[in-house]
What does this fold into?
Amino acid sequence: GAVVSQHPSRVICKSGTSVKIECRSLDFQATTMFWYRQFPKKSLMLMATSNEGSKATYEQGVEKDKFLINHASLTLSTLTVTSAHPEDSSFYICSARSARGTLYEQFFGPGTRLTVL
Amino acid sequence: QKEVEQNSGPLSVPEGAIASLNCTYSDRGSQSFFWYRQYSGKSPELIMFIYSNGDKEDGRFTAQLNKASQYVSLLIRDSQPSDSATYLCAVNEGYGNKLVFGAGTILRVKS
It folds into this structure.
């Protein structure tokens, strides 16, 4: 149980284009989903927290107009990187918290590696 | 800014030995503590969580929590080469949903 999927697993795009990443909880309903970014040999950095049906809460320094998050249902959240640039190249990971799980436990998706040329 | 500190390592132990990973945190209001394992190029996977002071054992893993000292540790008994990974300590931020992650400790188990 508690499986989270992400799609795509890897994407390469040209500078200036937009990329959408999907995060799905496959066998549970996720009241809250989180989006992280991880640069090589660095730890996870929380970008935003999204609750189903409401606007995402972004961490300080994260541009909400650049990283659009939509949490339309209890099993799906999307992150759209708009007008991507090479500095946006990173490993993007989502996690989901179950409505029935332990209070703060998060289950991670497999991640999406974004390369912007 | 809430902080979680870990020694970056690498921590090298021989196969079969006990690996001890340590973590300190700054937020006294934290209630929940997690250890995640992350293999290179992969996303983190949850190993253990602990809420109460003391020890919690699960197979070869033991998590230890000391809230007074703001210290949490992970012991891995009978370490195997497959345990070689980066271990991330995570702490919930106050009473919120968010987890704050440490930078991780690289563990290398040599056969």
Observations:
- The longest strand of chain A covers residues 30-38.
- The two ends of chain A are 37 Å apart (CA to CA).
- Chain A touches chain B at residues 32, 34, 42-44, 46, 49, 93, 97, 102-111 (CB under 8 Å).
